[in-house]
């Protein structure tokens, strides 16, 4: 990514309200809805292949009670990641980061790579992602984000020139001043905050400290308009068919 410019609307896990999240179908739906940027969650398999997956456990999206880190990529390909969402998406396969990046480039889509590391494998996660990205001759615009500071530290070391953002869902672990210090240390250009803590005071505070503010996950147009009036830079949505500008 050559700059930190991102659009107002970013598809959450592709278009997670319209197709099974983090799958090829979800990315296709995002393109059909006219999105120019999407967010994806990336973890690694047992054999250290970066894959698109949000949860540690496969139970919700593949109906398998086990950790993704206990299965190789080839084993994960045998599971159905679509039928939980709808019979229409039966036999949807898990998607690798490598294939997703090719899709984004071909379709001129930017991507926010959220690092969802398997616990204790943060370094392995970044090293595996690094190998994939450095193997590509061409790449879409992208930036990294994570709730995990250790993951962002690894990113800073491996991708010093790639933009990154710090994600926050509450202030119980870090207060706002702590967050500013973390963003300075890790050279984050933005914060991604949960809609439950997105208010005028917090948005103004982060903006005064020269951080762009992104809010997740907004599926209501009226709420989205209110956030933009408060100075939010971007929102993440599952429903790009409803949240349009």
Q: Which regions have little confidence, pLDDT < 50, spanning 5+ residues?
A: none
Q: Describe the biggest sheet?
A: 8 strands, parallel, barrel
Mean pLDDT: 96
The radius of gyration is 17 Å
Q: Give me the secondary-structure category.
A: alpha/beta
The fraction of residues assigned to DSSP E strands is 15-25%
> What is the string of SSEs from the N terminus onward?
EHEEHHHEHEHEHEHEHE
Number of β-strand runs: 9
What's the arrangement of strands in the largest beta sheet?
Answer: 1-2-4-5-6-7-8-9
- N- and C-termini, Cα separation: 24 Å
What's the tally of helices?
Answer: 9
Helix content class: 25-40%
Describe the structure in your own words.
This protein has 245 residues and is an alpha/beta fold. The chain has 9 helices and 9 strands. It has an 8-stranded parallel β-barrel, surrounded by 6 helices. Helix 5 (122-135) runs parallel beside helix 6 (149-158). The longest helix is centred in the middle third of the chain and has 14 residues, at 122-135. It is globular, with a radius of gyration of 17 Å. The mean pLDDT is 96.
Describe the secondary structure blueprint for this structure:
Blueprint: E1 9-12, H1 24-32, E2 37-44, E3 50-52, H2 59-62, H3 73-76, H4 97-106, E4 110-115, H5 122-135, E5 142-146, H6 149-158, E6 164-168, H7 176-186, E7 190-194, H8 200-208, E8 212-216, H9 221-229, E9 234-237
Parallel strand pairs: 1-2, 1-9, 2-4, 4-5, 5-6, 6-7, 7-8, 8-9
Antiparallel strand pairs: 2-3
Helix pairs in contact: 5-6
């Amino acid at each position: 990514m050559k700059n930190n410019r991102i659009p107002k609307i970013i598809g959450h896990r592709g278009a997670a309200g319209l197709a099974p999240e983090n799958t090829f179908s979800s990315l296709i739906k995002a393109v059909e809805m006219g999105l120019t940027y999407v967010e994806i969650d990336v973890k690694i398999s047992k054999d250290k292949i970066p894959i698109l997956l949000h949860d540690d456990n496969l139970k919700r999206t593949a109906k398998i009670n086990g950790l993704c880190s206990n299965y190789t990529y080839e084993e994960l390909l045998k599971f159905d990641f679509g039928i939980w969402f709808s019979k229409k998406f039966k036999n949807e396969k898990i998607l690798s980061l490598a294939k997703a990046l090719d899709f984004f480039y071909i379709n001129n889509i930017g991507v926010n790579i959220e690092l969802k590391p398997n616990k204790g494998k943060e370094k392995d996660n970044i090293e595996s992602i690094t190998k994939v990205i450095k193997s590509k001759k061409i790449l879409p615009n992208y930036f990294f984000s994570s709730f995990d500071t250790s993951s962002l530290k690894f990113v800073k070391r491996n991708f010093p020139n790639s933009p990154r953002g710090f994600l926050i869902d509450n202030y119980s672990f870090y207060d706002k001043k702590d967050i500013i210090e973390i963003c300075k240390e890790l050279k984050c250009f933005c914060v991604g905050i949960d809609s439950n803590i997105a208010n005028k005071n917090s948005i103004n505070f982060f903006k005064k400290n020269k951080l762009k503010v992104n809010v997740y996950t907004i599926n209501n147009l009226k709420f989205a308009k209110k956030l933009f009036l408060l100075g939010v830079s971007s929102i993440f949505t599952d429903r790009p068919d409803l949240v349009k500008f």
